[in-house]
Amino acid sequence: MMRLRLLAGLCVVLGLAVWVGSASGDPNVGPPVCPPGGTAIDGSYGNLTISGNRYVKSGTTLNVHGNLTIAPGACLDAFTMGTVHVGGNLLVSKGAILALGCTINSIGPVGSPCTGTTNDTVDGNLIADQALTMYLDGDTIHGNVISKGGGPGLSGAFLNFPIKDNTIGGNLIVERWQGGWAGAIRNTVGGNLTWSGNASVKDPDSNEVQTNIVSGNLMCNGNSPAAQVNPADGGQPNNVGGQKLGQCAGL
Questions:
Q1: CA-CA 20 to 30 A from 47: which of 75, 103, 204, 230?
Q2: CB 159 within 8 Å of CB 180
Q3: Which string of b and e fits 180-198 if b means at least 16 CB within 10 Å?
Q4: 56-to-81, 139, 194, 200 alpha-carbon distances in Å
Q5: How far is Cα of residue 242 from the mean position of the Cα atoms in its chain?
């Protein structure tokens, strides 16, 4: 199904432009995440701010010893077989797009799978403030993953917001994202998992919170549709060390 494909039906809204399709020079599996005209980035940096549209080419490495910031409205596409390491925090600003990591479960809309699993790592926290969307796939984040607000809105373009197959040392918190499909699937979370106030009117299967291993509590409130496990997509109940609360009480 479309919601299980990491980049399925990708339609990105950036400013007033609606973009679908491929960009010259971006050798990703499936269509690239960023709008046309992006340029490659690799090498080592102290702190780094991404402006405009950049991508990490397969087979290359982007190493940021300090903090990596995605500027407002910017895009970093690391949905490739490249490698990204962030020694500090990864900060995603309002209207920005981040795609990080690639696993064999990731399939683009034309059916081109990732050829393996990458080893993208964030030593600090990943914090998103009203990001347009993020694709987090097979990453190791030693701190927290916190996303507040954002998305194209309920009347905007259909966008996915997948958080899949990651190892997160702290808490995973996603609140008030509005768009097409969003979900947390097959993650290992060392703290609590909170999924609250996220909404979609275009996909009744949105807010899939399933097959996660959570050491702390699993808390879900105010999501529309309600947080759910979808067996049709291979979803299994979550393994939770603490309590299952709110909409996730039975998940």
A1: 103
A2: yes
A3: bbbbbbbbbbbbbbbbbbb
A4: 8, 15, 30, 30
A5: 25
Is the model's pLDDT at 94 over the cut of 60?
Answer: yes
Q: CB atoms < 10 A from the CB of 125, how many? A: 21
**DSSP of 54-110:** EE--TT-EEEESS-EEE-TT-EEEE-SS-EEEESS-EEE-TT-EEEE---TT-B-TT
Through-space distance between the first and last CA atoms of the chain, rounded to whole angstroms:
21
10: helix, strand or coil? coil
pTM to 2 decimal places: 0.89
- Asked whether 28 and 232 are in contact (CB, 8 A), the reply is no
Residue 220 contacts residue 206 (beta carbons within 8 Å): no
Give per-residue pLDDT as tens, 128-164. 999 999 999 999 999 999 999 999 999 999 999 999 9
Burial 203-240 (b: 16+ CB within 10 A, else e): bebbbbbbbbebebbbbbeebebebbbbeeeebeebeb
Q: Would you say 216 and 171 are in contact if contact means Cβ atoms under 8 Å apart?
A: yes
- What kind and span of H or E run contains 172? strand 172-175
CA Rg value for the chain = 16
Tokens standing for residue 96:
């920005």
List pLDDT tens digits, range 12-28: 343 322 333 333 233 33
